[in-house]
Structures are given as structure tokens and as C-alpha cells.
Amino acid sequence: MTEWIKQYARALGFDLVGIAPVQSPPHADSFLLWLAQGYAGTMEYMERTAHLRINPVELLPEARSAVVVGLNYAPADLPETDYRIARYALGDDYHTVIREKLETLLGAIQAVEPAAQGRVCVDSAPVLERDLAMLAGLGWYGKNTCLINTPRGSYFFLGVLLLTLELEYDSPAHGGCGTCRLCLDACPTGALVEPYQLDARKCISYLTIELRDAIPQEYREAVGEWLFGCDVCQEVCPFNRPRAHQPLRAQPTREPRLQPRSLPKLAEILQMNEAEFAERFRGSAVKRTKWRGLVRNALIVAGNKRDPALRPLIEQYRRHEDPVLRDAAEWAIRQIESCDTDV
Ligand code: SF4
Question: When you count CB atoms within 10 A of the terminal residue's CB, does the N or C end of the chain come out lower?
């Protein structure tokens, strides 16, 4: 059954698959300490669901095995845009893509083993996926807190299928960064406060996606041209760089639904209304920011570009009813004006 499940998962398009026993995650204590240090910022759901994250059997009583899968999301080429967007958000929403595949896998397993129960977990079900992925042999923790697979790198989505079946388990993955600290030095906001420690409150991914309020002043310039998410700590990682002896590294995804969609220009985003946003980003992970979050980010990016041509589009938000958008617009205008002064 174990080998059959793995082959089925690969046939569904998963690039990595391994199986771990369901147990309390090895990094449960570090996770609780991370929460206690306030590093989760406004992500209260992390705190609220912490007991489930450190105890996966609460998600599926009698769970014995975790089938952990990885799906490569690296694009062949980055789309041409006048801003940056994290690679994982270029195609269709990964939650849907992975959930559908894992539900197909669960259905196939239950057709063979009708008594088997399962639960699909993709972000929404609070499992510490990375710990289970490490136990299942998919990869090891990098200093950038990403799970790294030595031959393939870290551009992977992870998904977990909890099962009540007893299966054969893989060995945990081993590996490490050695003396490298490229990601810590490259992070624009210093969010990697020490190796393996991410202060999410400083992370551009958090600031542009999770945070609903204004992006704090001290990080606005560092956000640069990142409109949604950030890949800097992965881009600099040697494990994501092609090497002659590592032919699988940085290979483009084979999943059709993860191919990059066409993206609007920054000026178009600044002119979009909520209905147009919903239509344009239907089925995309970008929807998570909602219209207001994306426009806020677009104003910050526009300010960082200091492009006077964008000024009329920014101006309209100076009188907007939303104080977060007004504040971002004022800041962007000051950036453009400071550039005029410099000249
Ligand atoms: S950039 Fe270097 S330190 Fe950071 S995760 Fe990659 S190998 Fe580890």
C-alpha cells in the first residue's frame, strides 16, 4: 500500500512524496516560543490553532500516517511586470490545486481500503507541514526557515494527507546550510533575526499579504517593488541555483495550473475597482490581500519607483475614505517629490 500510494501521488503530478508517522511535531516547542515572542504579529489564527498545530491527531483521531507531498511551483520564466510578485502566487491558487489532488488520492485509497479515513491539510488545516515534511524525508530546515530539498531546492508547496492507515515510514531528511548566511544578509527588512528565526512582523510577505493595517514607515522603502510576497531569501539560496551536477534544481513546474497568469501593470492596479480586482484575480492566491491590500501595496511600490507618470493615479487616493490608502498615497507622493528635490 505504501508504494502504491507514492506512485499514485507521483502520477497526480506531485514532485515529492514521503510518509511520516503522525506524532507531535519535533519543533512544537520552538513554534510555541516563536508565538510567545510575538513574531506572528497580527496572525492571531496561529495562536488560536496552536494546539491543533502541535497535535495533529486532534485533526483526525486515530491518524497514524501523514502522506506529505511537495509540488514544485518554480516558473520557467518570470513574467514581465513593473513590480515583483512571489513565485508561488503567479499561477492558480495552490490551495485549490493541491487540495483537489490530495482529495483524488484519498478517494483512490478509500476505493482500495474502504475503512481508511483521511483528512487533507493544505494551510487551512493547521498542521505544521514543514515538520511532517522533514520527518517524511522531503527536506530539511534552512536558515531562511524554508524547507530545502537538497537536489531540488525550496520552491515547493507542501500538502499533507492524514490517514488512519499504518504505513511504512521514510527516514527524516538530513542536510544543512553549513556556514552560509546569504539569506540573513540579503533580507531587505532584516526579518531573519537569527538563523532559523523569522520575525514575521518584519517580513515583506507578511507586510504585503497578512497585515491589514498600514505598512510601518520603517519598512516601506525596503518593500521596494514587491507587490505581493517576497522571494529574496529563496532567490539568494544556493540550493535554488542551477548546477550542472544537480539537474533537478530550479526546473520549471510541470503543473499546468501553476503556470504564470498574465498580470496587470501597476497603473492598471491603481485604477482597478473592487469588482475588477475580484474578476482579474479570481482563483489566484493574490486574492488574499483583498482589493484594499493590493492597492495599498501598489501605492507603496509606486512610491518606491518614484515615477512621476504614476502621480495622477496616486493622487486620487489622497482623498480616499480609507485612512490606510490615504496614508500610503501621501507617502508615495512624498517619495516622488523627494526625488524632484534631489534633482
Ligand atoms: S541562503 Fe544559505 S543560509 Fe540561507 S537557507 Fe540557503 S543555504 Fe541556508
Answer: C
The mean pLDDT of the chain is: 93
The answer to whether 103 touches 69, Cβ cutoff 8 Å, is: no
- Beta strands (DSSP E) in the chain are 16-21, 65-72, 84-85, 118-121, 140-141, 147-148, 156-163, 192-194, 197-198, 226-228
- pLDDT tens for each residue of 297-309: 999 999 999 999 9
Q: Which residues are catalytic?
A: 123
Whether pLDDT at 125 is above 70: no
Residue 94: which residues within 8 A CB-CB, separation 6 or more?
71, 73, 88, 122, 157, 258, 285
**Which domains, ranges and CATH numbers included, belong to the chain?**
2-74+88-163 (no CATH), 264-343 (1.25.10)
Q: Is the CB of residue 207 less than 8 Å from the CB of residue 297? A: no
Q: What is the mean pLDDT of residues 310-321?
A: 95
Interatomic CA distance for residues 191 and 201, integer angstroms: 8
Say if ligand 1 is within 6 A of residue 43 CB: no
Which atom of ligand 1 is nearest the CA belonging to 142? Answer: 5
Residue with the smallest CA separation from ligand 1 atom 6 is: 237
pLDDT digits (tens, 9 = 90+) for 153-169: 999 999 999 999 999 99
The reported pLDDT for the residue numbered 343 is 46
Supply the DSSP symbol for 246: B
Atom from ligand 1 closest to the CA of residue 236: 1
Atom 2 of ligand 1, residue of closest alpha carbon? 180
Residue 324 Cα to ligand 1 midpoint, Å, equals 35
- Could you tell me if the CB of 177 is within 6 A of ligand 1? yes
Q: Which atom of ligand 1 is nearest to the CA of 181?
A: 3
Report pTM: 0.92
In whole angstroms, give the CA distance from residue 137 to residue 131. 10
